[in-house]
Amino acid sequence: MMRSLVSPDFLVKIDHRQCRRCKRCVLNCGFGALSFLDRVTPDNTRCVACQRCVAFCPEGAITVERNPLAFKSNDYWTANDIKSIYKQAEAGGMLFTGMGNDRPYVSYFDRMVLDACQVTNPSIDPLREPMELRTYLGSKPNALEFAERTGGALATRLGPQVALETPIIFAAMSYGAISLQAHKALARAASLAGSLMNTGEGGLHKELYPYSDRIIVQVASGRFGVDQEYLDRGAAVEIKIGQGAKPGIGGHLPGEKVSQEVSQTRMIPEGSDALSPAPHHDIYSIEDLSQLIYALKEATRYSKPVGVKIAAVHNVAAIASGIARAGADFVYIDGFRGGTGAAPTMIRDNIGIPIEMAIAAVDDRLHQEGIRNQVTLIAAGGIRNSGDVAKAIALGADVVAIGTAALLAMGCHLCQKCNTGNCSWGIATQRPELTRRLETEETTERLVNLLRGWSLELKDFLGALGVNAIESLRGSRERLRGVGLNQVELDVLGIKPSGR
Amino acid sequence: MKGTFPRIPSGCSITGILNKKAKRFSGADVIRSIRLMHDRSNGLGGGFAGYGIYPQYKDHYAFHLLYTNEASQQDTEHFLEKSFVIDRCEPIPTRPHPRITDVPILWRYFLRVKPYVVEQFSSSHDREWAEAADEAYAEKNFVVSQVMEINQKIDGAFVASSGKNMGVFKGVGFPEDIGEFYRVEEYEGYMWTSHGRFPTNTPGWWGGAHPFTILDWSVVHNGEISSYGINRRYLEAFGYHCTLQTDTEVIAYLFDLLHRRQGLSLKNTCLALAAPFWKEIDRYPEPKREAVTAIRQVYGSAMLNGPFSLVVGFTGGMIGITDRIKLRPLVCGQKDEVVYLSSEESAIREICPAPDRVWTIRAGEPIIVKLEEGVQP
């Protein structure tokens, strides 16, 4: 009998001459791709190439290879297209996946280069001179007033501001999508690095309370885990309208992932599906959003910034402007490369725009309307390194959020199977035998190291650019040049081509 | 190896002289001072700003214009006639000079704003300009808009200065030659600033010489503003158009925006433009810490970053300030009621051999010198 038309993506090769039959690989595979009969036997159909077995085999006896099985070469119908059709023909459902859009769209980050100083304005040595990355998240007025006659005291009262020691924060990832261990590591790392983590829509577990001054608490369409205490504990509140990986659609955490702890944190019955509706059922227009913003501000007594997260879509500039005018203190834009714990593949791969374009359009629009100071602009969705961070800031972002990069720092291998809940690395799973693999202490350190490394590199960029504070790079598109971009793209990005 | 190496100074010389009793003195002194620093410029730009030089027209906006051709002059004069009463106009007096060539058409105009135009302007412009409460303030906003329009829209015309009872004389050449060319020694003012240019990233052209001005603000600048991109972007949101192909003009506009329009004190304006480091701010006692923190939070895009030393002139005073890690020199001197600012101490001693006091300005800390209390400019 034919097993399936869907051939395995990967082949697991065991070198049985080297294998000691310790079965460690069998225990480590979260996907059940390895079993022990008289010797280690792979089930290739289950392998996702997460490399857990490879990393843990003491003998180095395992290799995972791409399945060379070839379809007849076809530049239009890719192997991926063909297999997807087989899968859907067999199961009759939607294709699901995890992590961000992996299609070969243009990366504008890779087509922009930064400037450096030579002679006329000196570069500054970050090892000898102070370099400042501190950034304040919160709304600022256009001007300050001082009572000059009464001794010059500050008369303007600024809205709440959250200090960040680096302009890099962790993106929203919920407890439920990722493990408590991973959530705790993010919170501790944010606390140690003077950054922020974001609860996502899964509520705030009690074990994260000690770090709550470094946590953005999210209010999403499902309202999971939202109560007065939740709002009180956050450093800032974020209303989630959309997400780069799945703009316009809701979320779904299957009941099997809703363990006792998750159920308590989300405030839903154990084992029940956690469904986030596509829109907020109380937000069908911008004035409804404004009401929620002010409801949350009232609930938190105007003591913390309240912002809004949206996916970068075609009309993002106008939407962001509306959000700023609706009273938000920050706008978080998530580009089409942004990750997810689970999303319909077709949605992930075909909706949204690149974050580079979105930052440029939003920053332009807010400047034109004279309301740029009113909001902090957070950009996310496919930030891979400090070069991307510097370019995003030069385009106009105040702060950059990283999700996928943070997961990679924790050990993720980007197998894109978060939606299965089988993560062998203990990150995107709730299975206790898997989650306990993620050692919080060590994971925290890896995250802090990543932020530190990128921050050092950012300081190097600033020094090369001859400035010593991040605000002198922010929105300074004069310091960017395009390589291999057409005039329209250059215009949208607001940059010149290299050589000009 | 013992001792220190002498630092080899690079690029541009600046000088400022202020008589705090508003006694007017000839421009000859400032020419001598800037001449001494000949080697700091390369002959591609020099200029002077004199304050108190037009006492007979002290309530008029004195527009100094540079024209590359007669058509641009005609266009500009038509444009000015629409909104201003031109009480006097004439070529700016010059003398032929062997080293000053390719001279543009140089004219000056003494202008009064026609009575109804400001009102019309305030009601027809967007909120940024219409924030006007009092008339004098609105009138200045109007004058700024006219300067922007000439610089931006009339091909070949550039406004060198537009303040009251002050004027700028600038061009391509060594500053001492420019001074002789413009017969600067024939004017008397209570304050003079001057600049010798060593242009690097912008071409040497007459409009690109310092001082840069708007209204009675004048800026002479040694250095380069590495944060120009964001400073310019920030200013554009407030209606300032940077058209002069150089980084320095943003400084004049920032002073105009922050001090005149938004009402920050000069000291707070300097705190915004050359902000202290966070680690210093964190140590300030309250309420100073809160105030300076707010200034950095709100005016981050206005902060000037990169090497600079500046002398900023305005009616009744001048400011000397350097960038916050002092990548360019600035020295201050004083003799009786006269205060000197200069790139080099020698340039002060050249005209004031025995000053009461000479000191080096600290990084990022402004020297703000004003006329003595009660003295009218």
Relevant CATH superfamily of chain B: Aminohydrolase, N-terminal nucleophile (Ntn) domain
The CATH architecture of chain B can be given as 4-Layer Sandwich
Biggest sheet of chain A: strands, sense, closure?
8 strands, parallel
CATH superfamily of the largest domain in chain A: Aldolase class I
- According to CATH, the fold-level topology of chain B is Glutamine Phosphoribosylpyrophosphate, subunit 1, domain 1
Radius of gyration of chain A: 24 Å
What is the β-strand count of chain B? 18
Q: What is the rounded distance between the termini of chain A?
A: 66 Å
Give the overall silhouette of chain A.
Answer: globular
Strand sequence of the main sheet of chain A, in spatial order? 11-21-20-18-17-14-13-12
Here the CATH topology of the largest domain in chain A equals TIM Barrel
Q: Main beta sheet of chain B: strand number and arrangement?
A: 7 strands, antiparallel
What class, by secondary structure content of chain A? alpha/beta
Judging from the principal axes of the Cα atoms, what is the shape of chain B?
Answer: globular
- Give the second-level CATH assignment, the architecture of the largest domain in chain A: Alpha-Beta Barrel
Summarize model confidence as the mean pLDDT of chain B.
91
- Tally of helical runs of chain B: 12
